[in-house]
Amino acid sequence: MRTTGTFSDVHAQAGKYHAGETCDVMDPVVRREGDEWMIESQLEPSDGDVEVALDEFCEYWFPTSCPADTPTDSEITNWLGLLDT
User: pLDDT per residue over 37-70, tens digit each?
Assistant: First the structure.
């Protein structure tokens, strides 16, 4: 199922996947299109400016098995900067 909304929405859903909930999306990626964030299949066409595999997203935001707090705006900005390098 495709998840759309704010970064916080996508972060929360990714946390559920990371904790073991089944992701029924083929080749899931986290994307940003404009102000909207989503988890969807990499096979879907996209006009987004950010795309990262869901596994990589989870490795960064959930480095341990403990649930992570919702990132701050500055943490999100820092992460986006890492993607540009």
Answer: 999 999 999 888 999 999 999 999 998 766 678 8
Task: Report the greatest alpha carbon distance in the chain.
Answer: 33
Distance CA 70, CA 32 (A): 17
Host domain of residue 75: 3-83
Distance CA 71, CA 11 (A): 8
Give Cβ neighbours of residue 42 (< 8 Å, ≥ 6 apart).
26, 27, 28, 29, 51, 53
Instruction: Give the per-residue pLDDT at 65.
Output: 66
Name the domain count of the chain. 1
